[in-house]
Amino acid sequence: MEIKDFRKPWVYKTVSLVNWLVIPAVAFYSVFFYDWGDGYHVFTEPQRWMRRQQEAFFSLSPEQQKIVDEETKQLDNAASQKPTSAA
Asked: For a FRET experiment, which of 5, 20, 26, 77 has its CA 20 to 30 Å from that of 62?
């Protein structure tokens, strides 16, 4: 007598897909973001590299900062010169 599996075939495909997504995600997180402690460990250099990439992505270059400063100054000047309406 053969025992029939009660699970649908899509369950196996879904579990396989989840495995292919979750395992690399956990490995990526473990290498680049997990806090392994204060001492030097095998993932110290990859984590430093990732921090440098994040800082470069989320910061402005000196030229960009200059543009932002100029625009902020212009907006401040325009706001201070805006006439107030008398009620």
From this structure: 77
Q: Are 46 and 31 in contact (CB under 8 A)?
A: yes
pTM of the model: 0.62
Which residues does 33 contact at the CB level (< 8 Å), separation at least 6?
47, 50
Place of tokens 């292919």: 20
Query: Tens digit of pLDDT for each residue in 18-46?
Result: 999 999 999 999 999 999 998 999 999 99
Helix (H) or strand (E) holding 76: helix 62-81
Torsion sign across C-alpha atoms 34, 38, 42, 47: positive
CA 83/CA 27 separation, integer angstroms: 59
Q: What CA–CA distance (Å, rounded) separates 70 from 78? A: 12
